[in-house]
Amino acid sequence: MTTPRDHGGGLDAAVARHGGTREAWVDLSTGINPVPYPLPDLPNDVWTALPDRGAQEALIAAARDFWDVPEGAAVLAAPGASALIARLPGLMTAGRVHVPGPTYNEHAAGFAAHGWEVIDTDGSAAQARVIVHPNNPTGLWHDAASLDAGLMVVDESFADVAPERSLIGHAARPGVVVLKSFGKFWGLAGLRLGFAIGDPELIARLETLLGPWPVSGPALRIGRAALCDRAWAQDTRMRLTEDAARLDRLVTEAGAELVGGCALFRLYDVGDAAGWQERLARHHIWSRVFPYSDRWLRLGLPGPDQWPQVEAAL
Q: For the segment 95-121, what is each residue's pLDDT rounded down to a tens digit?
């Protein structure tokens, strides 16, 4: 059995240890928008019929428009960005891949599972490179100079908070694949929808690996509605930015130092990360700590009705 990798979540275990009901907890261990896109009404046949070609094409067209995808780049919808991360390393013969850390650990795990040698320091001799843009958990943004490998994976799972900083304009370059996650910004992680955008040859091979009907009928319809709703996206960016600043004020006043993050999650140096996590858990607030740092604590944003609980705990 594969050992689970370190991630956010794990709320059930926290509830079992510290008590209370799951509904009474505030889960700040992930970077998921706590105010999700409102679900549209769906016709019954999206649940009973196989996804049709028209719905797939409509979703892809909406994605092209929303992200301003270059004409020479291809777009593929998938059942979550994680499904793409697991398959991308199989597109090339295994060699060396540069995954600068600390970062989201599924990329290194995916390449290692396909026989690649993963390096996190000097990547000059690597045949592939992964950048998480903005990085999770540090919030570091990259630039086009980072796109310097044969296979170049750009994980933009959190980039929709600042679309002007996206590297999507380079997605038509040979070897480049940009990943987009629908679960983070739109707050619908359970929908399992993600996109690979980039080199048409690589995208075509990914499509073959995914097989027919990779995206469910409800996800096709909901995804298209959300991507076409630019007003919701703009309002959400403003709210997330304001809420991130509000959280920073609360946490820094409690003695922490802001060291990174983006508008969907914040990274703090708290001195004793395990102690802070335990303290917050006693107030039924779950946070994220990291195995490689005993000082860093990452917090997502509370929902509108959860701020009083967070303020009391801090």
A: 999 999 999 999 999 999 999 999 988
